[in-house]
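Encode chain A's predicted structure.
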Amino acid sequence: MNQGEGTAAYRKGFARGLEPDPELTVTAWADSHRMLTARGSAEPGLYRSDRTPFWKEPMDNLGPRSGVSHTVVEKCSQIGASEFGNNWVGYCIHQAPGPMMVAQPTIELAKRFSRQRIEPMVRETPVLAERVRPSRERDSGNTVLMKEFANGILVLAGANSPASFRQMPIRYLMRDEIDAWPEALSEEGNPMRLSERGTKTFASNYKILDISTPTVDGRSNIHAQFLRSDQRYYHVPCPFCGEFQKLVWEQLRWEGSKPKGQDGIEELADTAHYVCGSCEERIEEYRKPWMLARGKWIPEKPGSSIRGYNINGLYSPPGLGWSWPRIVTEFYTSKHNPTDFRVFWNQVLAMPFKEQGQAPPWEVLYRRRESYPVGTAPAGVLLVTAGADVQQNRIEIEILGFGRNKETWSINYLVLPGDIVTREPWKQLEELLQAGVKHASGVTLPIRRLCIDTGGSYTQGVYAWCRRQSHDKVLGIKGSDNTPLLIAPPRRVDINFQGQYQPRGMLLWTVGTNLGKQEIYQLLRIDQPTHPERDGYPTGYCHFPEYDESWFKGITAEQIVPKVVRGYRKYVWEQIPGRPNEPLDCRNYARAAAASLGAFTWTPERWATLEKHLGRAPPAKKRRRAPTEEGGRFGRWHGPSPSTTRYARRSPREL
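Encoded structure for chain A:
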């Protein structure tokens, strides 16, 4: 090489060295730098985007070269979406620094996300460890909820705290699990709107990523955002005919339809396969990686500026989360339980669950009455609970029996008259609890637990009565529209003169009224079998004695209706005019009492033990009874006469 050629090569190399590094996409950055830890991933090591190829397009939307400002991901669980969001966080710290916020449903979840996701990612990824100083260093600017780095900052926020969204410009905003966000923050308004205010500073180059599993149709934040988007679904080719199609639940097939026991379900699930919607060829799961690698996102509503992606568990790569046999198993183990089936619908199929909020026709239930005597537990009953609703001039109570497979029998519904500020209705309630229920076998079953509502106008009086009862026998409860459980753990309400909670004070339990009513309506809609003596009754079937029409109108007295609250549409339970809703409330509380005992999760062996003890129980002692009198609108009084009842040692004092 002569001198001239050497000079030219030198100048060319020098010029190339002055050029900036090529800008990586989020996917390329993750493949080059992102390290997965054993603490947060089932497959530790260098991130591989070809493992979940459907995340490449959504990830690349988040790079600065992309013109997409808002990306929405409506997804199933266990499909790698969390790592996809973390890749974006790491990319921003390394390649495109700026003010970034990751918002979780609560502050507590934000702290957990920081410790379990962000901190391990920074520690194990060298290019991030260089830019984010360890929190143990003095003046590092690194705390659990804030990470500072060159030219940028990462703030972790909770959607339950309005202060999280104030006075901070946000260029990058990731909103995680938005279906668990509260609908409103006191007087601040909707947290979804509040979180977007900070992005207005970066009107031309902000980025928003929404990720969540959907919940209930009409109340799902992620599904509402998805409906505003261009609604993209991942289409994969058939290995046989090449036709592109999205994977749907209806095309997943298996051999057989009535498995017997868990072993039968697993044997049936092993035959799971997919049927092409075009050529109808059988596609085995081992072909899924080939299909996913050649897939593409296709919008169903092109033209929207928001990119929306929906992906369900059928796309889960082998070994990552949802195999096709596992999906079939989940379907069969949840199909007879309304709560479990909703989880399957949301977390496996990535679809919002449509609530059966319309009341079942009361006439259909009325015609379904059975001839077993009111006040006596039929042969299938192994557990008895009760639910009571307190009104100013009466206490209404349903006694409910439970058996195997979540089957229920209404044993009695009573109205205990009397002004609740007097002794009379409470005395009748105590006698009823002490008497128990006569079983068809001849023994007397105790009312194992009572849930009584404390949320009316006589709250302190109900508290006073509950304090004098056994805490294992009587639970004071308060209904809540936002509680996602049938019954939630209790909290103490008694305090001393220093404002401290008394350790042995009154416990107040919370009942999820919306969830409970929804489950009741779903159970009431179970059809009566044609040949119950031969085929038995379906799981969760509800039996009723010969109550009058008023009770059936009362247990179907509410329905879900849409309302606009503070400018936002929401669905609420509303009483149908002219119908008393106390029977519905009492049924809800009686089911909550059973849930507090864990009855809905008892094993067949536990029920068998109850049956064994029932057969060996001694006959009830005969008591002299007063002549039977009408005890309420819907049934007769079957408890002992007040004049002959002997109070327990801890007899309540006069209220």
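Confidence is low (pLDDT under 50) at residues 617-655.
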